[in-house]
């Protein structure tokens, strides 16, 4: 095999709680992550010429070691002393710097691709152990599905799959720094937290409304005061029939959970025709397995 094509799926956080700031500066979290069927297309091709050549459909993205996909390829090729080179093409569809792990999932896909092309024989667990060196979300993007994330995000436990639904994703035309959000998070003033245990029970019962009722993201306390359009998008989604709506990760992407596809499509069209968001997609959950 010398060419491989892959889909690198994005994610949303169904619930995001920050428990404390550790002495080393990292934050201890408890989150439910969910892969969604919004993906980047990645093509990788082995070549005889030395070096890694990366190209994307977005001219503002780096195509060198500043791109996590490039670093992922280089890491495995150096570790296993792989001769020759590699061409990587990334067709981006996941919003960039949006709280959906768009970069991390590209890096995860490239790790998988290098493993396949060169038949390295690495297991999923071994890929995840290497992925954490690239970024906290990379191991999850290798695992995918509905997952409880704990510690600083490195402790991953699969939970029952997300019930069938429609997820409306909308990114406003702004950028948010994850570092800034965590640095300005004041945990002693957080009044509402997600019910992570209740969400896990709802997932096990296949109770979509129970999942939606348990949603909360403590990082909204930082991001929404800076960018009130995030709250405005949530309001549009709820008015359109979403069971609940929330910011994903550190933002600014907002997602809404719909049990009715027509309501989701209607709300999608409202957002697309407005000024609050330019990237709007109606997608479904991407599930790996079902535990009952």
Structural description of this entry:
By secondary structure, this protein is α+β, with helices and mostly antiparallel strands. The protein has ten helices and ten strands. The strands form two sheets. Strands 1, 2, 3, 4, 5 and 6 form a six-stranded mixed sheet that branches. 44% of the residues are buried.
List key phrases describing it:
single chain; 292 residues; alpha+beta; 6-stranded mixed sheet; 4-stranded antiparallel sheet
Q: How would you briefly describe this protein structure?
A:
With 292 residues, this protein is an alpha+beta fold.
Largest sheet, strands/sense/barrel? 6 strands, mixed
How much of the polypeptide forms β-strand, as a percent range?
25-35%
Structural class: alpha+beta
Number of helices: 10
Number of strands: 10
Order of helices and strands: EEEHEHHHEEEHHHHHEEHE
**Radius of gyration using CA atoms only:** 19 Å
Could you name the ranges where pLDDT drops below 50 across 5 or more consecutive residues?
none
What number is the mean pLDDT? 94
The first-to-last residue Cα distance is: 37 Å
Rough outline = globular
List the topology elements.
Blueprint (H helix, E strand, L loop, with lengths): L2 E19 L5 E21 L3 E6 L11 H12 L5 E7 L10 H16 L6 H8 L6 H6 L2 E5 L4 E4 L7 E6 L6 H6 L12 H10 L2 H6 L6 H7 L2 H11 L4 E4 L6 E5 L2 H13 L5 E5 L9
Parallel strand pairs: 3-4
Antiparallel strand pairs: 1-2, 2-4, 2-5, 5-6, 7-9, 7-10, 8-9
Helix pairs in contact: 1-2, 2-3, 9-10
């Amino acid at each position: 095999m010398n060419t491989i094509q892959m889909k690198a799926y994005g994610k949303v956080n169904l619930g995001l709680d920050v428990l404390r700031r550790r002495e080393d500066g990292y934050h201890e979290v408890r989150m439910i992550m969910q892969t969604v069927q919004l993906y980047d297309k990645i093509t990788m091709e082995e070549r005889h010429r030395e070096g890694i050549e990366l190209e994307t459909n977005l001219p503002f993205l780096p195509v060198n070691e500043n791109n996590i996909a490039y670093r992922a390829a280089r890491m495995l090729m150096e570790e296993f002393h792989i001769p020759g080179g590699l061409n990587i093409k990334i067709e981006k569809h996941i919003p960039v710097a949006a709280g959906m792990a768009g970069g991390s999932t590209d890096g995860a896909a490239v790790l998988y691709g290098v493993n396949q092309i060169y038949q390295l024989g690495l297991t999923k667990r071994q890929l995840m152990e290497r992925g954490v060196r690239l970024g906290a979300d990379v191991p999850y993007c290798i695992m995918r599905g509905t997952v409880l994330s704990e510690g600083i995000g490195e402790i991953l436990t699969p939970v029952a799959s997300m019930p069938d639904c429609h997820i409306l994703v909308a990114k406003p035309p702004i950028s948010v720094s994850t570092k800034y959000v965590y640095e300005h998070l004041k945990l002693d003033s957080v009044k509402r937290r997600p019910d992570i245990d209740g969400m896990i029970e709802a997932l096990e019962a296949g109770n979509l409304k129970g999942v939606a009722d348990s949603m909360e993201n403590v990082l909204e306390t930082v991001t929404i005061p800076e960018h009130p359009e995030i709250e405005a998008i949530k309001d549009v989604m709820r008015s359109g029939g979403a069971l609940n709506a929330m910011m994903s990760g550190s933002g600014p992407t907002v997602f809404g959970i719909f049990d009715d596809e027509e309501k989701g499509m209607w709300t999608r069209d409202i957002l697309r025709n407005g000024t609050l968001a330019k990237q709007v997609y109606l997608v479904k959950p991407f599930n790996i397995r079902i535990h009952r």
